TrEMBL record:
Protein name: ABC transporter domain-containing protein
Species for this entry: Brassica napus (Rape)
Membrane topology summary: Multi-pass membrane protein
Keyword Transmembrane helix: yes
A UniProt-annotated Pfam family: ABC_tran
Classification of source organism: Eukaryota, Viridiplantae, Streptophyta, Embryophyta, Tracheophyta
Protein origin, superkingdom: Eukaryota
Cellular compartment(s): Membrane
């Protein structure tokens, strides 16, 4: 599904803040050979990614690729990724587009190191070096579709909670608070900073604001690579647009942003909603 990949480039606007934090806090001491001092931009490359799973086929075993599990049940191989290659650069947003079931989430999971290595074939490199799991955890972040947030905390408190967990212990509280305040502005959440997250029983932030808080939690350490699985799903077009603007800002600030998009829309200032024929 390489034809599904779409890349949008934005001006590069300086280096990841978290890289400075990470370097200052010796996050990378265990991977000293890693080329983090190499010149910008960071480039994530993936080549010939192939991933398949074994599925039980009780009714219609395929003679071509069948085998048997321990119980004698016929097993077939289902190919989810078939030789996918691509490249994403610092300062860019890469959107993976495709129909439901085409493998968008599987590709994002593969790139985000969320698939067992033994079943994934091909190579994933950052600036030409194989991306090891230990480094992956430090330099990347993954924003899930479901927002798991504490309903009684405010936006500010939620991000501060994440800062306490994700930023180095050696970083002073003042610096963590400064990072949270900068992030609130980056996420366009200034007006909602002191609003509680809320839930079904308590009114809180809007759906779009909630999604931006979820993104904020995962980018508090300013990751070099940010993965998002359908960050705009379930949002109205204005909220979805604001989420994409935030991600654009994240990319511009020196990250690689890779996301899956389920329902891309042509709507924007330059592309008005098309007129549909009335039946
Ligand atoms: N562990 C698995 N075993 C068997 N099939 C799987 C497994 N994981 C995913 N699939 C199948 O692989 C295909 C791709 O799934 P994936 O979730 O990547 O699609 P998607 O493009 O993200 O879909 P959606 O837009 O609906 O979320 C689907 O047909 C799914 O049912």
């Amino acid at each position: 599904m390489s034809e599904l990949l779409m890349s949008m480039e934005y001006d590069q606007n300086g280096r990841s803040q978290a890289l400075d934090i990470a370097l200052a806090s010796n996050f990378f001491s265990s991977v000293s050979s890693y080329p983090l001092t190499s010149p910008s931009p960071f480039v994530l490359s993936f080549k010939d990614l192939t991933y398949s799973v074994k599925i039980k086929n009780m009714f219609n075993p395929l003679p071509c690729c069948g085998s048997s599990d321990g119980d004698g049940m016929e097993m077939n191989t289902k190919i989810l990724l078939n030789g996918i290659s691509g490249e994403a650069k610092e300062g860019e947003m890469m959107a993976v587009l495709g129909a439901s079931g085409s493998g968008k989430s599987t590709l994002i999971d593969a790139l985000a190191n969320r698939i067992a290595k033994e079943s994934l074939h091909g190579s994933i490199t950052l600036n030409g070096e194989v991306l090891e799991s230990s480094l992956h955890k430090v330099i990347s972040a993954y924003v899930m579709q479901d927002d798991l947030l504490f309903p009684m905390l405010t936006v500010e408190e939620t991000l501060m909670f994440s800062a306490e967990f994700r930023l180095p212990r050696s970083l002073s509280k003042k610096k963590k608070q400064a990072r949270v305040q900068a992030l609130i502005d980056q996420l366009g959440l200034r007006n909602a900073a002191t609003t509680v997250i809320g839930d079904e029983g308590h009114r809180g932030v809007s759906g779009g604001e909630r999604r931006r808080v979820s993104i904020g939690i995962d980018i508090i350490h300013d990751p070099i690579i940010l993965f998002l699985d359908e960050p705009t799903s379930g949002l109205d077009s204005t909220s979805a647009y604001m989420v994409v603007k935030v991600l654009q800002r994240v990319a511009k600030s020196g990250s690689i942003v890779i996301m899956s998009i389920h329902q891309p829309t042509m709507e924007s200032k330059g592309n008005p909603k098309p007129n549909h024929k009335k039946h």
